[in-house]
Amino acid sequence: MTDLLIKSADLIGKGRTDVLVRDGRIAEVGSISAKGADTVDADGLVLLPGLVDLHTHLREPGREDAETVLTGTRAAAKGGYTAVCAMANSYPVADTAGVVEQVAALGRAAGYADVQPIGAVSVGLEGKRLAEIGAMAHSAAEVRMFSDDGHCVADPVLMRRALEYVKTFGGLIAQHAEEPRLTEGAQMNEGAVSAELGLPGWPSVAEEAIIARDVLLAEYTGARIHFCHVSTARSVDIIREAKARGAKVTAEVCPHHLLLTDEAARSYDPVYKVNPPLRREADVAVLRAALAEGVIDAVATDHAPHALQDKQCEWAAARPGMLGLETALSISVLALGGPAGVDWDLLAERTSRAPARIAGLEAHGRDPRPGVEANFTLVDPAATWTVVPEDLASLSRNTPYAGMELPVTVQATFLRGRATVLNGKIEEETTE
Ligand code: DOR
Ligand code: ZN
């Protein structure tokens, strides 16, 4: 492969710097003139370590009408991601070594982002028997994170056993915190808006009660727990206290919970239906502050593509979930102070370094230094773009940001030194 020279990129903490890439790794960082290298003019562009998503629904196997590993990772690359963790709620469920190996292989074949499968905690996500956690951990996919996402691991005995099991090999459980008895029939956040609209509510305590319980179980077992899509102010309090005691707790927040509120449900447009639901303005403010402070470690998309018929229907019949990969960077910038005020180092921490550490993806979330894999993205901090659903790389169209003008564009993404996105466009040739 020819050397690649990134010219005059804005490096975090360094200012305008050149970066030389050779054989998929960073070879040199500084003021470089390299004859014969392919050169990318990055003047005015910020270089970030490639974004890492802890929470992506790729839908393959089983719902290839909504997304495939190929289309989902193309969307990821376009959003500046170099690695995504694929949730286990596929059909069949990723609860065996065979399925997680299949998903990882599809990711390698696609070549747009590293795909790290997440294994199910329970067989069929049914919450009854532990899945083949050990077999998935020791498979070629080397699964470290396990989640029944979409469902809560509601049985405390099952959760205890799962925590004890993953502790033996340094793994972790990612919990979708939703006490199922408290959310039966729920359609949106429980509060003034749900009362007005007459829709059954999803009370914040259903999330908080499980987070409180699981913090205690994690402390009792000494295992690691991660909380998916934290959405309420009280959840933040509980996590802050747990961290202060030294519990091995990490947490993520989704872009939509950092921007949108339950007021959106007044439209009755199911594009705003998501689980956990959009909350109140006061929750949004607390989540933003917690992300800035680090009580919440990472932004994770919960990219949840759905086929048209599952979204363009009445609210109660619609599936929960929204697209996230192609808009997450822009929304994160908005949530962390806007394009003029954003601290790029903090942004890199929450969208790349921290999620890479949580998932154990050592080749990702690394700032450019000689020797590290060349997984990075170039963003234009001054540009804006308008979200046009038809233009998205995802196979699905369920974005809540259609027509919105958002800050910051991804100009290029590099995976092991190879462009997956260049000049804002997906590269069609990705074979290494
Ligand atoms: O909104 C959601 N969609 N929340 C989940 O927990 C699952 C996800 C999905 O799979 O569509
Ligand atoms: Zn979930």
UniProtKB/TrEMBL annotation:
Pathway info: Pyrimidine metabolism; UMP biosynthesis via de novo pathway; (S)-dihydroorotate from bicarbonate: step 3/3
Cofactor note as given: Binds 2 Zn(2+) ions per subunit.
Span of domain Dihydroorotase catalytic: 45-233
Any GO MF annotation of the entry: zinc ion binding
Binding site for Zn(2+) 1: H55, H57, D149, D302
Annotated EC: 3.5.2.3
Residues of the active site: D302
Amino-acid positions noted as binding substrate in the UniProt annotation, renumbered to this chain: H57, L58, R59, N89, N275, H306, P320, G321
BP GO annotations: 'de novo' UMP biosynthetic process; purine nucleobase catabolic process
Swiss-Prot/TrEMBL keywords: Hydrolase, Metal-binding, Pyrimidine biosynthesis, Zinc
Reaction(s) catalysed by this chain's protein: (S)-dihydroorotate + H2O = N-carbamoyl-L-aspartate + H(+)
Binding site for Zn(2+) 2: D149, H176, H229
GO cellular component: cytoplasm
Family: Belongs to the metallo-dependent hydrolases superfamily. DHOase family. Class I DHOase subfamily.
Protein name from the UniProt record: Dihydroorotase
Species the sequence originates in: Glycomyces harbinensis
